[in-house]
Structures are given as C-alpha cells and as structure tokens.
Write a structure and sequence with these properties.
This protein has 113 residues and is mostly helical. It has three helices and no strands.
C-alpha cells in the first residue's frame, strides 16, 4: 500500500512539473512572439513617421507652388486637397476590399508564425 502511495505521489509530482514546464514554455513563446512583433513594428513606425513628414512638406511645397502659379495661395491648397479627396474616394471604392483582405491575411500569418 505504501508503495502505491509513493508511486502516486511520484506521478503527481511529475504531472505538476510537466504543468509548470508547459506553462513556462507557453510564457516564453508569448514573450518571443511579442518581442518579434515589437522589434518589427517599431522600426517600421519610425520610417513611416519620417515618410509622412516628407510627404507633408512635399505637399506644402506643391500647394505653395501651385498657388503662386495660379495667383492665389489658397488655389494651390484647394487643388492638393481635391487631389487627395479624389484619391481617397477612388481607393475606398476600388481597393478597400483588397487592402482589407491583404492586411487580414498578413496579421493572421504573423500571429501563427
């Protein structure tokens, strides 16, 4: 009887160790995925903000130039704003579903990687 209790205790100890090890493995996998995603996301974010700043100043320059050519600065800004309004409507009506599917598939692949 005592031998059975000893085997049962040994089995329970091994099961507890297995559970702790499995939990530690899951925790390490989560840390790995989060670290990988953050280390990818942060450099892309920095490049994105630099690019947005570049585009902003380029748009300002084009708007001022068009305004000077057309005789009034606000004409240049209206043309640039109209261009972006037209582009937004076009992208939303034509490319919206494709972009949504692309990003959905991208994020699923990143999570399951």
């Amino acid at each position: 009887m005592e031998e059975r209790n000893h085997l049962l205790e040994s089995l329970l100890d091994k099961a507890a160790d297995y559970g702790k090890t499995t939990f530690d493995l899951v925790k390490l996998n989560v840390v790995d995925k989060v670290s990988d995603q953050l280390s990818t996301f942060l450099p892309h974010t920095i490049v994105f903000f630099v690019f947005v700043t570049f585009v902003l100043f380029l748009n300002l320059a084009v708007a001022f130039w068009l305004g000077e050519v057309l005789g009034h600065f606000f004409y240049g800004f209206l043309l640039v704003a109209g261009f972006y309004g037209f582009l937004a409507v076009l992208l939303h009506s034509v490319v919206h579903k494709w972009l949504k599917r692309f990003f959905y598939d991208f994020f699923v692949k990143q999570i399951l990687k």
